[in-house]
# Entry
Amino acid sequence: MTKKVGIIGYPLDHSLSPVFQQAAFNDLNLDVIYESWPLLPKEIPYFIENMKTQSILGVNVTIPYKEIIIDYLDDIDGDALSIGAVNTIVNTAGTLVGYNTDELGFSKTLSELMDLRLLNKSALILGSGGVARSALRTLIGNGFKNITIANRTESRAKKLVADFVNNEAIRINTICIEDDKLSAISKSASLIVNCTSLGMKHGESQNSSPLKYSDISKNSFVYDMVYNPIQTPLMNVANQAGAKTFSGLSMLIYQGVESFKLWTGMEPSFEVMLKAAEEALLID
# Structure
């Protein structure tokens, strides 16, 4: 019998997961179909309950449900619980367990792209949602001592800090993303990580960047979690500033590899998944 896997979130027009995950299932000759399930908040309880009795191996969870989905699951993996966000659900005979593969995906990507030992361990995280939680834990784990979280609603950023900080040696500040002081903070950060959806293709703010080129130092590394388009508005302004820029595509694939392994127990080809995603971006 054909099994299903899919992704839930809203909206899902931007998602590449159906493309590269299906390529991996096909590559391993698995009888699995990967689908997109755009859900409104009110539809989540019914979907989750119905999922338990369907031939669904599991799902990916994306914006804006990575945090609230926890309340609907039977069990949560320890790392996902510590992060406070779930991006992967595994269905085992009607028992739904939540995992977080974003942190591993981000950590692998950072270690490949830059020598973190050479940075001054100051970082700016833009956004405070589920992926920001994974980014924050990754940076803390890599020795970053001075971190600022900028969010449209500062109270949400403060909650994120309260959930994570229990070490006085780590200083985590918060600021409203529209505050004039953000520019100075941004210029002094050795690593800037965009965890907002600003600049995402097909989104309401697809032409927007959370920062201007004058906010970015040429010595900074700018990592944009947005992967569609592959050259985002933030990356464009960072290039103008002379900074080094990185797309979130590699992280997307790495976290997808880990999700695939959780659903199937098999190792997919990173190269097959990446090629399928890149080809889709060129067509889109």
Notes: Residues 103-247 form a domain with the Rossmann fold fold (CATH 3.40.50.720). The mean pLDDT is 93.
